[in-house]
């Protein structure tokens, strides 16, 4: 049995901002776990990032070797190209979603994580399932608030 954990993630928002959700599939050897949840007002990028966070937070053992498959260039490139660490060094000034990036870094640093970007809606069965889970979660009744999202957080700081 491989000690590597595979996490597939996807996020969705209808309206962007609008109702949104995330879907996650975790796999390790014979073990498999599917997770999803929705929020009444959020953005696609927040859900993409929250999916990764929730997937990593579901891991029981610190120091796990993890490969995250995501169709989000926003998330994959921020980490793999090192942008996130520059944003962090500048206190996330004028960056969107600092609450989630800070939360991400805390859990990311507990594991050995590598990102693989995959094209969305390209017939990858696990990515398609994550998309389905995210969309279904976004359509739930009585969705909770995404407490980190505000309309003001979407401003780019130019004015």
Structure description:
The structure is a single chain. With 159 residues, the protein is an alpha/beta fold. It has one domain: 2-Layer Sandwich (Nucleotidyltransferase, domain 5). 34% of the residues lie in helices and 28% in strands. A five-stranded mixed sheet has the order 3-2-1-4-5. The protein starts with a strand and ends in a 21-residue tail after the last helix.
Structural class: alpha/beta
* Gap from first CA to last CA: 54 Å
Outline: globular
| Biggest sheet: strand arrangement | 3-2-1-4-5
Unreliable runs: none
Give the total of beta strands. Answer: 5
Number of helices: 5
How confident overall, as mean pLDDT?
93
Report the CATH superfamily. Answer: Ribonuclease H-like superfamily/Ribonuclease H
- Report the CATH topology name: Nucleotidyltransferase, domain 5
Q: What composes the largest sheet?
A: 5 strands, mixed
Helix content: 25-40%
H/E topology pattern:
EEEHEHHHEH
Specify Rg, calculated over alpha carbons. 15 Å
> What is the name of the CATH class?
Alpha Beta
What's the short story on this structure?
The protein is 34% helix and 28% strand. With 159 residues, it is an alpha/beta fold.
Write the layout of secondary structure elements.
Layout: E1 4-13, E2 18-28, E3 31-42, H1 44-57, E4 65-70, H2 73-80, H3 83-89, H4 98-108, E5 112-117, H5 125-138
Parallel strand pairs: 1-4, 4-5
Antiparallel strand pairs: 1-2, 2-3
Helix pairs in contact: 1-4
Task: Give a quick set of tags describing it.
single chain, 159 residues, Nucleotidyltransferase, domain 5, globular
């Amino acid at each position: 049995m491989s000690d590597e954990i595979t996490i597939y993630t996807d996020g969705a928002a209808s309206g962007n901002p609008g109702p949104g959700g995330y879907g996650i599939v975790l796999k390790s050897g014979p073990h498999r776990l599917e997770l999803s949840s929705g929020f009444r007002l959020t953005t696609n990028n927040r859900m993409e990032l929250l999916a990764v966070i929730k997937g990593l937070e579901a891991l029981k053992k610190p120091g796990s070797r993890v490969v995250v498959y995501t169709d989000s260039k926003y998330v994959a490139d921020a980490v793999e190209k090192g942008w996130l660490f520059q944003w962090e060094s500048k206190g996330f000034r004028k960056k969107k979603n600092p609450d989630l990036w800070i939360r991400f870094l805390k859990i990311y640093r507990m594991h050995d994580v590598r990102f693989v970007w995959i094209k969305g809606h390209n017939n990858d069965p696990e990515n398609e399932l994550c998309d389905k889970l995210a969309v279904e979660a976004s359509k739930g009744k009585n969705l909770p608030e995404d407490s980190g999202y505000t309309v003001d957080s979407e401003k780019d700081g130019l004015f």
